[in-house]
Write a structure and sequence with these properties.
Blueprint (H helix, E strand, L loop, with lengths): L7 E4 L2 E4 L3 H26 L4 E16 L5 E15 L11 H6 L2 H5 L7 H29 L16 E4 L4 H5 L6 E5 L2 E2 L3 H10 L5 E7 L2 E7 L5 E3 L5 E3 L6 E3 L6 H28 L10 H12 L3 H19 L7 H14 L5 H29 L4
Antiparallel strand pairs: 1-2, 3-4, 5-12, 6-7, 6-8, 8-9, 10-11
Helix pairs in contact: 1-4, 1-8, 1-9, 4-7, 4-9, 4-10, 7-9, 8-9
C-alpha cells in the first residue's frame, strides 16, 4: 500500500525510511484530534461537566490512566478520530441515555452535560471545531515566523518577487528563467509583488509576454508564453492548471504580529475554498472524485514529511481546519448536528423528541460512513490500488 521500504524521505534533514509515512500520518491525526477533543474537554470542565472518558482513537484501549477528577484518558487502537464522553452520554457521539439520566441523583445531574443550560451545551459542542481553528492559526503563525517557504497565499512575498523555483517542463524553464531572477516588469508594466504577476498572467489568455528581470544585478529581457501544466497534489489528485509560467516566488520569515495576521487570513482562506468546493459540488461544477480520505491524508503526510517538519506542521494545520469545518456541518453525530438540535430546541422551547433525535443520529452516522467509504474508494482508485 505504501512505497517500498527501500525508498527514503527526509525529515528534520535526516534520511529516513519511507515506512515513516505511518508515524507521519499518526502525528497529523493525533495532534488534530487531540486539540479538537481538548476544546470540548476544557469548556466542559469550565461549565462544571463531569468528563468520563477522553479518548484518542476508537475501539479497544491500548493504554490509559485516570486523572484526579476521575476522567479516563486513553489511546485506542483505531486512530481515525477520538471522543470525549460526558456523564450521562449513551455513546461517544454524546447522545443522551434517558434511562441513565433518570437514575442520576441531584449531585450527578449537576455534573451531566444534558442538564446544563442550552448556551453551555452549545459552547461545549462548538469548542472542538474552534480549537481546530486556533491550532491552525498557531501553526501557520509559527510557520510564517520561522520558514522562508510559502504556506499560504502570496501576501507575504518580498518585493519585487524573486524566483525560488522554476518548475520542470514549464513555460518559464523553456524561456530561460533561473532561480534568483528578480521580476521587474511584464509588457512594460512594473511588478511590485508576485500577485501583480499572477493577475497579468491570468488575463494574458496564453499570449507571449515580454518579461523584464534582473539577474545578478544585470537587466535581462525574456519572452515566455504561459501554458497550462499538469498538477498532482499531495493527495494524488491530478488537475490541469490555467495558463501559468511555472515559477515559485521566494518568501521571507515574518515578525510575529504580521505572521499572526497572515495565519488568520490563511485559515479563513481555507474555509472559503472549502465552502466554495461544497457549493460547486451542490450545483454540479465539482466532482466527488476530489474527495480524499485517510489514505489520502497518509500519502500527503509522507510527502509533506519529505519536505521537513515545518511542511508536516503545515499539513497538520490544513487538516485541522478541514476537521474543524467538517464538524460544524449540520449533520447529526457531528458537532454541527448537536448545534442544529440545540438551535431547534431554542426555537421550540424544548428538545426534539427522543425518537426524532435517534433517527437523526442514525441517518447522520450512515451519511458519514458512506462519505468515508467514498473518500477511501477515491484514494484506492487514485493510487491504483483498486
Amino acid at each position: 500500500m505504501f512505497a517500498a521500504i527501500g525508498n527514503v524521505v527526509s525529515v528534520f534533514g535526516v534520511s529516513l525510511p519511507s515506512f515513516l509515512i505511518v508515524p507521519a500520518f499518526l502525528f497529523v491525526i493525533t495532534v488534530v484530534v487531540f486539540f479538537h477533543e481538548l476544546g470540548h474537554f476544557v469548556i466542559a470542565r469550565a461549565c462544571g461537566v463531569k468528563v468520563d472518558v477522553f479518548s484518542i482513537g476508537f475501539g479497544r484501549e491500548i493504554l490509559g490512566f485516570y486523572d484526579r477528577k476521575g476522567t479516563r484518558w486513553k489511546i485506542s487502537w483505531l486512530p481515525l478520530g477520538g471522543y470525549v464522553k460526558f456523564s450521562g452520554d449513551a455513546d461517544p457521539s454524546s447522545r443522551s441515555d434517558p434511562e441513565t439520566l433518570k437514575k442520576l441523583d441531584p449531585a450527578a445531574r449537576a455534573g451531566s452535560l444534558h442538564f446544563k443550560p442550552l448556551h453551555q451545551r452549545a459552547l461545549v459542542a462548538a469548542a472542538g471545531p474552534f480549537a481546530n481553528f486556533v491550532l491552525a492559526i498557531v501553526i501557520f503563525t509559527v510557520a510564517f515566523m520561522f520558514s522562508d517557504r510559502q504556506v499560504a497565499n502570496d501576501q507575504q512575498a518580498v518585493e519585487p518577487p524573486v524566483i525560488a523555483e522554476v518548475f520542470k517542463d514549464s513555460a518559464a524553464q523553456a524561456a530561460g528563467f533561473q532561480v534568483g531572477d528578480e521580476i521587474r516588469s511584464v509588457d512594460g508594466q512594473a511588478i511590485a509583488r508576485f500577485s501583480d504577476l499572477q493577475k497579468i498572467i491570468s488575463a494574458s489568455e496564453g499570449r507571449e509576454l515580454q518579461i523584464g528581470i534582473v539577474r545578478k544585478g544585470t537587466p535581462v529581457e525574456l519572452h515566455a508564453t504561459p501554458r497550462p501544466i499538469s498538477i498532482t497534489d499531495a493527495a494524488g489528485n491530478k488537475t490541469t492548471s490555467p495558463p501559468r509560467l511555472g515559477i515559485a516566488p521566494k518568501f521571507q520569515p515574518l515578525p510575529a504580529p504580521q505572521a499572526f495576521v497572515h495565519a488568520v487570513s490563511q485559515t479563513w482562506f481555507i474555509i472559503q475554498r472549502t465552502v466554495g468546493y461544497l457549493g460547486d459540488l451542490f450545483i454540479g461544477h465539482a466532482s466527488t472524485k476530489e474527495l480524499s480520505g485517510p489514505l489520502g491524508i497518509a500519502k500527503a503526510a509522507g510527502d509533506f514529511a519529505a519536505d521537513g517538519f515545518i511542511a508536516l506542521l503545515n499539513l497538520t494545520a490544513f487538516v485541522s481546519v478541514a476537521v474543524g469545518f467538517a464538524n460544524l456541518l449540520p449533520i447529526p453525530v457531528l458537532d454541527g448536528g448537536h448545534l442544529l438540535y440545540y438551535g431547534v430546541e431554542a426555537i421550540l422551547g424544548r428538545p426534539l423528541g427522543e425518537r426524532a433525535q435517534e433517527v437523526g443520529f442514525r441517518l447522520g452516522l450512515a451519511f458519514v460512513l458512506c462519505l468515508l467509504l467514498l473518500a477511501t474508494f477515491n484514494d484506492l482508485v487514485r493510487f491504483n490500488l483498486f
